[in-house]
Design a protein that fits this description.
Length: 130
């Protein structure tokens, strides 16, 4: 198996996107609402990858482009199809926002973290009282 890309990301991929924070906020809110209503039910791959990402971030609580790229890499092509690719879009938006941190992104990053925590939980709804 090939090794995932590390710190040699193309500058184009990490270029500051002014709309990245609002895009992440919108996608996070839409996924949270769909999760609440049962319109989006994370599958096993999505739950495992969300859990692994949260473990990787547990030391410092920070999403980093490297951690997010590794998670996307682990999901491979299957993640782009799982759940209509919604989780991978969230991870890509998180990567864009975390590549150029700005103070106004903190509430959005916190909301995304809570969504990933919920995604990582078992689909039986245990502990899903948020």
């Amino acid at each position: 198996m090939a090794m995932p890309p590390t710190s040699h990301a193309s500058p184009d991929l990490l270029e500051r996107r002014p709309a990245a924070v609002p895009e992440l906020a919108s996608l996070t809110a839409a996924l949270s609402e769909d999760l609440d209503q049962g319109a989006w039910v994370p599958g096993p791959l999505e739950r495992v990858l969300a859990s692994r990402l949260l473990v990787a971030c547990s030391g410092d609580g920070q999403f980093t482009p490297a951690r997010l790229r590794e998670t996307i890499w682990e999901g491979s092509v299957a993640l782009t199809y799982a759940g209509d690719g919604r989780l991978v879009r969230l991870l890509a938006d998180l990567c864009a926002v975390s590549a150029h941190p700005v103070p106004e992104a903190e509430p959005v990053l916190s909301a995304a973290a809570r969504l990933l925590e919920r995604t990582a939980r078992s689909v039986d709804g245990a502990g899903d009282e948020d």
